[in-house]
Each structure stands twice: as C-alpha cells, then as structure tokens.
Fold:
Amino acid sequence: MTGTRRTVAALFLLPALVLLGALVVYPIGYSVVRSLYDQSGDGFAGADNYKALFTDDGIRTALKNNVIWVVFAPTVATALGLIFAVLTERVRWGTAFKLVVFMPMAISMLAAGIIFRLVYDQDPDKGVANAVWVGVHDTFAESSAFPKAHPGRDSPLRPQGGGFITEAPVRTGVPVALPLVGVAPDQMPGSAKKAVKARPAQGEITGTAWQDFTRGKGVGTLGAPDPSERGYAGMKIEAVKDGEVVASTKAAADGTFTLPGEADGARLRLPASNFKEAYNGLDWLGPSLVTPAIIGSYIWMWAGFAMVLIAAGLSGIPRELLEAARVDGANEWQVFRRVTVPLLAPVLAVVAVTLMINVLKVFDLVFIIAPGSSQDDANVLALELYRKGFSEDQPGIASAIAVFLLLLVIPVMWFNVRRLRREVRR
Structure:
C-alpha cells in the first residue's frame, strides 16, 4: 500500500522476529522437546512425564489448588472491583479511595508475600489477622487468667474434669486453704493483691486461693500465704454436694472468698473454666486455611486493578440509560442489576479472564507465604514446576508441567483476544 518493497519490510521486522523467536518460540519448543526425555535428557521417555501429571500426589494437589485459585480469586477480585467502582462513583473522595485500593499494585509479589507472612503470624502480638480475631473472640468469650495453675505439694486439691476439687468436705467456721502454683508472676491478673489468710466466720465457709510460691530456695511456708505471694483474683469457687452445685463465688483481689452456710459438708471445686487456655486465634498458615489465606493476599493486590478497569468501563456507560430506568420506576438495586451489570459485561469478562491467566501462573505468593510445613498443601502448578526442576532435579517432568500450563492458558488467552477483537469491530 505504501510502495515499500517486501524485502525492506522484512528487514525492519527481522529484529523483532529474532527477539520473538529467541525469547518465546525457542523456549516453548525446547520445553516441548525436553518434556519427552527422561531425567538425564539422554533417554526418550515419550508420554511418561505427562502421565506423572496425573499420578504424582504433589502435582495432583497442585492441580486441585489451581482449580480453587481459578474459580475463587478472579471471581472475588472482580466482584470487589465492581462494588468499589460503583460505590465510589458518586462520592467526593472516590478518587482518593481508588488510589488507596490500587496502591497494592505498586508492591511486588515478593514484598506482598513477606507482608502477609507477618499478617498471618500465629502469635496475636505479631500477626494482625490473629490480633483482630482474638480481640473479637475475647469480647464474647473471656479466657482464663490461670491456664497453667495446678496444685503443689501437700495440696488438699485433686484433679477433676479439667479443674480441681478438695478431697475432704469443708465445714463452717473452719477456713479453707486452696494453694496453687504454676502461674508466672507477669501473668497474674493486674488486680491481684497480697494474699491474706482467711478468718473464720460463724455459719459461713471462708478460705483463700493464692499462688503458693515465693522466689528463693527455702523461702516461704507451704500451705500458708507469705508476704510476697498474691491471691488468685477472680478465681471461681463452687461448693459441690451430691454432684450438684449448692453455692458459688469468686475470690477477691487478695484471694479470699466466702460461701454461705449451705456449703457446709460440701467439697470445694475450682471448675475447668478457671484454667482454660487463652485463645490463640486461627492457624492461618496451617494445612486447612493456607490456600484461602494466600488467595486473600492476592485479592488484596488485584482488586484495585479490577476496580480501575471497571471504573473506566463504567464512565463510558450512557447516563441516559440509567436515568431512563430510574424514571420508569426502577430502584438503585434494579438499575445496578438490570442495566449497569449487563452493560459492563464485556469489561467484567475481560477483567475476569485476565485474572484467570494471572492466577494460573501464580508462584511468588505461595512460595513466600506458605511455611515449609504446609507448602505441600498450598502447592500450585507453577510452584511444583520450580520444585521438580530445581529441588528434585526432574527437568523432564518440570517441562511437562510447563507445557501443561501453556495448554491451560491458551484457551483463556484465545477467548480474551477474540473478545477484544469483537469489541474493536464495534
């Protein structure tokens, strides 16, 4: 059309063709050929490496996790992007909100993996996820301050149902000593005060529950409160007679407690609720939750990408159509469901398909976030390719995984290109 000779055009295209061949065509061709050979590369293995894709337990787990990734990650990221784009369209600070949501895209996968490895730390004092989870849990179910408390030597208490109970019945007018040990000084309740020996009271059961331990060899008296020992503030005490609780109370700050005369002849029980271990949150990076946790970090990064593309598509929707629907009596939900979403369908499809291609190749987040103990459970095809090729020295199987991944991506890419061409024709 321009009069340029084909030879000249070919010369101009030659550098691009050479680069394309060296960086794309040759690696693909070499991977296909290498996938047909054994570990050494000398013996022809035929389809054996491809058979391993469906017989190797690690590869099958990776394939299963890839299916989970493809189904949930693009869907949730696209849905969140749609919600963010629609809700921020009419607010003043919408641009600032979009900037904040899009900001994780500026972070590399490696950095995001390190961030979320810390976010999902099991220790609530380090991991943000468990700090929030434990805070919510403890709001509705308070944990005990004495999880490791237990009777010491010559104690009148014996174990029962996770708690402890006195061996002999108690009598009114006779003070009861309930000495315990095992709570570190820095773990004692802040309200705990110096333990006081209970005084006898006519017609009532009195006693003291305290930490019967004084630092220093040979210091202190067993079975009696010493000056440096503190009471078990808030310890629950129950009087049990014939298997039924006839009275209950809680120890004061100095460890003393009082029960009414109905407790005469009963045995005193420290129920298991006093010794319940503190709730430590969820094991986010354990075998059962590691894949959803990593998908959550991926959505944190890519929801902003989906939001920006959908917002661009939303700005191209004719406002007359939305106003016409409102004039016809449609509420905002109906306008969104029956007008906005159908008009955004091409954009939503492109975003979802793009994210599908992306998650099929996910590697960095899984490799960084999943600890060694649960990496097998979080395994994906790209990570298994790396492990087979470098850790296990099986380049034939690694090449077969690479070819299999390419075959999985090609239909999705073809669908995306076809849709884009259809949009250009319009």
About this structure: The two ends are 25 Å apart (CA to CA). The chain has two domains: 27-132+284-425, 157-275.
